[in-house]
Amino acid sequence: MTFESRKRAIILCAAAAIPFSALGATPVLSADKPDIVDRATWGAKKPILKRMKRQKAREIIIHHTGVRQQPKISLERKLRGLQGYSQGEKPWGDSPYHYYIGVSGRIGEARNVAFAGDTNTKYSVQDRIQVVVEGHFDRDRPTKPQLASLDSLIIWLAHKHKIPAKAISGHNDHAQTDCPGKRLKPHLLVLRKLVAETSMRDKPAAQNPASAEN
Ligand SMILES: [Zn+2]
């Protein structure tokens, strides 16, 4: 290889690296708030507060909706439907989940995190943020936009509420259920890793006793 051809090869490699990272090959660990469709925007009814308990968010639980993905129905309509079911057919004050990630990847604010969620299964919902991803993940696959939204939502929530990586779990870690499904459950390891990496990065070096020694 001549010097010229070697130089050209290096330039080609450098050029090839640009679209690779632009496609998201390098994870961007941002704890910024992602776009969230708030309750007023999707037309939420008032919560029924006498049915609800206040909480302090200390953990995050991941769910699937347990029904197949419905790409033709808007996120807003799904959120209104879930709230109507929760306050009507169920004795709950509001949607059982705090955040809902639709098949398109759009995130909806379902219940105020200052109040504990609700469940059909036997486990404590107290002090836990409930995040549901649309689909039945023994059959559906989470879409790429859903996983990207889940990652950014969980990093933001963990950062905002000072929730450690180990406090992120799936519904079936606590109760007898298939939720959040075989095809979503493995992604919890990715979520824990992202949260751990983000909190490490945010920690000032002076607060780390190991580095202070050196
Ligand atoms: Zn669940």
Explain briefly what this protein structure is:
This protein is of the alpha/beta class and 214 residues long.
Write up what this structure looks like.
The protein has 214 residues and is of the alpha/beta class. It has one domain (29-201): 3-Layer(aba) Sandwich (Lysozyme-like), CATH 3.40.80.10. It is 36% helix and 11% strand. It is built from 6 helices and 6 strands. The chain has a 6-stranded mixed beta sheet with strand order 1-4-3-5-2-6, sandwiched between helices. A hairpin with a 5-residue loop joins strand 3 and strand 4. Helix 4 (144-161) crosses helix 5. The longest helix is centred in the first third of the chain and has 20 residues, at 3-22. The radius of gyration is 21 Å and the shape is globular. Zinc ion (ZN) is lined by residues 63, 171, 177, 179.
Strand order of the largest sheet: 1-4-3-5-2-6
What's the architecture, going by CATH?
3-Layer(aba) Sandwich
Number of domains: 1
Q: What average pLDDT do the residues reach? A: 87
Task: Please give the number of β-strands.
Answer: 6
* Weakly predicted, low-confidence segments: 1-26
Largest sheet: 6 strands, mixed
C-alpha Rg, in Å? Answer: 21 Å
| CATH fold title | Lysozyme-like
SSE pattern, N- to C-terminal: HEHEHEEEHEHH
Molecular shape: globular
Which small molecules are bound?
zinc ion
Alpha-carbon distance between the two ends: 46 Å
